[in-house]
Structure formats: structure tokens, C-alpha cells
């Protein structure tokens, strides 16, 4: 049962990540550089895909550096409070997404009955995340797909670019 569960979970989570990699990769370089909202969503997605797959989250060590900023100090089109320390290229963000894809794959493939009892616990404050392992994985999948949809919408509305849907992991991204 657990083997089948892990395969199904990875089929869908991996497909979500593949779609994110595909939409970022499909973005023309000049649009990626000029359209700051697209850039910030792609960066945010890369950071949090990695963060939510880090157990425990205190071990999080991002490949792309950022600074946490108060709302009044954030760039206009940014999302969230993690602001990149410099402008990263599309290729750097795609590479980070590919790295995190492997990390997520290993997380799912490594699930055992015992691992499923572990928790993603940020801290002890009332608003800190404290999720069972399966819930943080599903949360990460939903977060990834949410931002993938935003990026797809921006490409479709601004450039009339359509990216592929992935039914299962590996349909569009062979890594």
C-alpha cells in the first residue's frame, strides 16, 4: 500500500513541479527580465518549493540568497517577504527548481510509516507552521501548482504563449 501511495503522490507532485519548470523555461528571456511580477513569482516558487521540502525547516539552506524585508521595503511587484539579493537569471531559477525537484522526489520516495509521523514544525509561535509530513507535501504541491497557474496566466495574457499540461511526472520534463 505504501509503495503505491508514494508512486501516486510522486506522479502528481512531480507533474506539478514539471509544469513549473516548463512555464519558467518557456518564458522568453526578455520577458523574464522585464516583467518583474513573473520574475518574483518564479523566484518565490523556487525558494518555497525547497523550503517546504526541508525537514526540519531549520535545516533550510537556499541555493539562491535572499533577504527578508518588511512590506514597506519590498519592491513593488514582489510577493512575500523573501526578496532576492540580486537578479537571478532564468537559468539559475530553473536549475534551482530542478535541484528541488530531486529533493522532493527523494522526500516522497523515502516515506515510511515512521517518516509519515514526522512533522514540519517551524517554531513555537501560534502562527508557525506545524504540519504532519503528508500535509506539508500536499501543501507544497498546492503552492507549486498555484504559482504555476499564475505564471501560465501571465504568459498567456501578455504573450499568447501556451505551455503544456502534465498528467503525470515525466510527461513534459525528463529529469
Automatic annotation (TrEMBL):
Pfam families, per this entry?
Answer: DinB_2
Q: Which Gene3D superfamilies match?
A: dinb family like domain
The organism's place on the tree of life at top rank: Bacteria
Residues annotated as domain DinB-like: 82-151
- Bilayer-crossing regions: none
- Indicate the secretion signal residues: none
**Protein name (Swiss-Prot/TrEMBL):** DinB family protein
Organism the protein comes from: Flectobacillus longus
